């Protein structure tokens, strides 16, 4: 072997050199201290308080959703506790007209983007009204097919580019999702078309019971961006400031016409995969849970904000009370939504009903009139 | 009017719609500067620019996702899947996503997408190029599936498909691309989706067919005429939804029917047609409705196409069984 080729095949050089470039980006450490002064986004006091408010609110939303699910008052629910920085600080870097293509765990982002909470609850229960997105709210319903949101995001981003719109499309998947073909096709299309897309991988360490290491031999998921030739970064997903900055910068590059970015947020879900029977004690030890509990995004942000005199127990309690009240009202509104009829489902299939459905519509209309 | 082959009529339809609606986008593998592997998009990039007619990376699923995303931003995508045997790569984007978007969003988002794709046997293609997979598409609520058999139908149906605000799968038979020429109007015109066409009127037997099998059925009908039988040939044109009215009216007139498809007997859509007839017109039938279809094997190796694909002789044989039942 010639010198050049043997160097390329030497795992200690090429691979190591790549991995070395993906050091975790952090601004706020676990003790709530700024450890990367240079990268501090210097958000205004109001912005810092608003971001904390949303994170606390969403933690309560998660607690209430789990409890409402247990009471049978919600259906499908994928817990979010632990991912508040990853979900909400990335969303905080967006503008109103940006598009969000969420995965099934990404309900908080579309709620903060404008989807009414009662509709999010109807999504959980399985009612079409929950997915009737209000006009002007640029989101699609949570995607169940893991990876599909990635290829669709490449399409939305290309559409925005063709419209010369200074906006972006952002999408989210998990660590397991990075093994899908659509994950690669999505980032590769957006790269080839230099589209304004932000691809986020929320690496919460487990795909149901399967640990991250079983998905890939790659040391980081961020480095998979190299395969698409797009910039990528590994971020402390429990650090709201780091997630915010990474997303803000990706957005800036995208609207400047520099193409898409891939962001891996290293985070953790404290709860089960979903409320549909998953038991994390089968595959996770309490040691790991405790290790990640020490990294809690709300805890470190609270310390940081209290240090600046921007947050207090009283303020936090006000947010909690408001969240509980709004959740109660939203559940009530969901309860009051008329039940679905087969004729509704038929009517939503096509703009113009084909003959087979016209026939079935009449049959069900007759049944429903009895 | 101009004499056109089916592939020319398709190009013409695309040109009409690119001109008519600035939201129409044509994209796929090699559809741009190359003009498509069958020249179906020849000259379009030159005329309308790379923003309207463009090549994509080689990934069918990504192409499907692109169509979904472009629809969300108000475009009217007309993507191409190079051969329909490659649809398996994009089944989720078509059946799992495009077909369901209007329903899953309670009628708030629509997907005005037309997926063009060639298929069909008789030209010795390599593996997975000629398979008839319309049956898979016809089973997915939310789609419409269109299969033209003539240049005139191809243009009118493609324009209607592109203008439709719901997803349409538009399948183009490889053997029909250049085998027939006919008069095709130069201006834009439409043919309603879901409407069959009586290609030949008759009194003794109805043959329901689509794609290449329409022409094989017409050939069989001519042979049968020599033997004194008057045969009606109905080109379904849209295989989902079926034109029940035309099908039943024909059966009620002739009292005998066969359904002809190129797909395997366990595939295609012939069984649907038979069911609709037995549910709606059993009292008109003098004989069971029989099917002409390919054997239930994987699509043949190229050298075996001639012994495997259904042709007018198979149609004749089955027609006689029904006529003499």
UniProtKB/TrEMBL annotation, chain A:
Record-listed E.C. numbers: 1.2.4.1
Reactions mediated catalytically: N(6)-[(R)-lipoyl]-L-lysyl-[protein] + pyruvate + H(+) = N(6)-[(R)-S(8)-acetyldihydrolipoyl]-L-lysyl-[protein] + CO2
Function: The pyruvate dehydrogenase complex catalyzes the overall conversion of pyruvate to acetyl-CoA and CO(2). It contains multiple copies of three enzymatic components: pyruvate dehydrogenase (E1), dihydrolipoamide acetyltransferase (E2) and lipoamide dehydrogenase (E3).
Cofactor(s) of this protein: thiamine diphosphate
Dehydrogenase E1 component domain location: 53-342
A GO term for molecular function: pyruvate dehydrogenase (acetyl-transferring) activity
TM segment ranges: none
Top-level taxonomic group: Bacteria
Pfam families in UniProt: E1_dh
Coiled coil: 313-340
Quaternary assembly: Heterodimer of an alpha and a beta chain.
GO biological process, one term: branched-chain amino acid catabolic process
Keywords: Coiled coil, Oxidoreductase, Pyruvate, Thiamine pyrophosphate
Protein name: Pyruvate dehydrogenase E1 component subunit alpha
From TrEMBL, chain B:
SMART domains: Transket_pyr (SM00861)
Keywords: Oxidoreductase, Thiamine pyrophosphate
Cofactor: thiamine diphosphate
All residue ranges annotated as the Transketolase-like pyrimidine-binding domain in the record: 4-179
Database matches in Gene3D superfamilies: 3.40.50.920, 3.40.50.970
InterPro entries membership: THDP-binding, Transketo_C/PFOR_II, Transketolase-like_Pyr-bd, Transketolase_C
CDD domains named in the record: TPP_PYR_E1-PDHc-beta_like
Pfam families for this protein: Transket_pyr (PF02779), Transketolase_C (PF02780)
Molecular function terms from GO: oxidoreductase activity
Protein's recorded name: Alpha-ketoacid dehydrogenase subunit beta
Organism name: Lysinibacillus telephonicus
Organism lineage: Bacteria, Bacillati, Bacillota, Bacilli, Bacillales
């Amino acid at each position: 072997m010639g010198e050049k080729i043997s160097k390329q095949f030497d795992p200690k050089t090429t691979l190591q050199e790549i991995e070395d470039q993906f050091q975790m980006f952090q601004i706020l450490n676990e003790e709530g201290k700024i450890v990367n002064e240079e990268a501090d986004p210097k958000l205004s006091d109001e912005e810092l308080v608003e971001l904390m408010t949303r994170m606390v609110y969403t933690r309560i939303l998660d607690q209430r959703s789990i409890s409402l699910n247990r009471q049978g008052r919600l259906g499908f629910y994928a817990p979010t506790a632990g991912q508040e920085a990853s979900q909400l600080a990335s969303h905080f870097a967006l503008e109103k007209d940006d598009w969000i293509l969420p995965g099934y765990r990404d309900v908080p982002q579309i709620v903060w983007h404008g989807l009414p909470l009662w509709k999010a609850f109807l999504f959980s229960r399985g009612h079409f009204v929950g997915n009737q997105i209000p006009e002007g709210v640029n989101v699609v319903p949570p995607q169940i097919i893991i990876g599909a949101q990635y290829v669709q995001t490449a399409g939305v981003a290309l559409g925005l580019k063709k419209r010369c719109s200074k906006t972006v499309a952002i999408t989210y998947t998990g660590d397991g999702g990075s093994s899908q073909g659509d994950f690669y096709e999505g980032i590769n299309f957006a790269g080839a078309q230099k589209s304004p897309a932000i691809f986020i991988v929320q690496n919460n360490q487990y795909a149901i019971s399967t640990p991250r290491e079983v998905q890939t031999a790659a040391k980081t998921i961020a480095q998979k961006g190299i395969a698409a030739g797009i910039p990528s970064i590994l971020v402390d997903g429990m650090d709201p400031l780091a997630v915010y900055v990474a997303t803000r910068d990706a957005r800036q590059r995208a609207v400047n016409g520099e193409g898409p970015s891939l962001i891996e947020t290293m985070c953790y879900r404290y709860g089960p995969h979903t409320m549909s029977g998953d038991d994390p004690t089968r595959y996770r030890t309490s040691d790991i849970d405790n290790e990640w509990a020490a990294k809690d995004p709300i805890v470190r942000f609270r310390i940081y904000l209290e240090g600046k005199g921007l947050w207090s127990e009283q303020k936090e309690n006000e947010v909690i009370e408001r969240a509980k009240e709004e959740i109660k009202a939203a559940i009530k509104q969901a309860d009051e939504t008329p039940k679905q009829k087969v004729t509704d489902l038929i009517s939503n299939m096509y703009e113009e009903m084909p003959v087979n459905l016209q026939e079935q519509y009449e049959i069900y209309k007759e049944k429903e009139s009895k | 009017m101009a004499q056109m082959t089916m592939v020319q009529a398709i190009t013409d339809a695309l040109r009409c719609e690119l001109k008519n609606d600035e939201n129409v986008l044509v994209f796929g593998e090699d559809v741009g500067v190359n003009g498509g592997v069958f020249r179906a998009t020849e000259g379009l990039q030159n005329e309308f620019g790379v923003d309207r007619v463009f090549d994509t990376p080689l990934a069918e699923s990504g192409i499907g996702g692109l169509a979904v995303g472009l629809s969300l931003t108000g475009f009217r995508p007309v993507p191409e899947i190079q051969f329909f045997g490659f649809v398996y790569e994009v089944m989720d984007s078509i059946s799992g996503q495009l077909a369901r978007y209007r329903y899953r969003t309670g009628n708030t988002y629509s997907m005005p997408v037309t997926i063009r794709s060639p298929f069909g046997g008789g030209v010795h293609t390599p593996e997975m190029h000629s398979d008839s997979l319309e049956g898979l598409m016809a089973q997915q609520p939310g789609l419409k599936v269109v299969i033209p058999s003539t240049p005139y139908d191809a243009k009118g149906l493609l324009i209607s498909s592109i203008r439709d605000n719901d997803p349409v799968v538009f399948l183009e038979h490889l053997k029909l691309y250049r085998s027939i020429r006919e008069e095709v109007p130069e201006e834009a015109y439409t043919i309603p989706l879901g409407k069959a066409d009586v290609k030949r009127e008759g009194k003794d037997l109805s043959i329901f067919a689509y794609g290449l099998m329409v022409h094989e059925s017409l050939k069989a009908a001519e042979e049968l005429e020599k033997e004194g039988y008057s045969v009606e040939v109905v080109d379904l044109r849209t295989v989902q939804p079926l034109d029940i009215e035309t099908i039943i009216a024909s059966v009620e007139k002739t009292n005998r029917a066969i359904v002809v498809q190129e797909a395997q007997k366990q595939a295609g859509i012939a069984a649907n047609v038979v069911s609709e007839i037995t549910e709606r017109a059993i009292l008109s039938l003098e004989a069971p409705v029989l099917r002409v279809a390919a054997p239930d094997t994987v699509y043949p190796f190229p050298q075996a196409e001639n012994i495997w694909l259904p042709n007018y002789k198979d149609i004749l044989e089955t027609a006689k069984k029904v006529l003499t039942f």
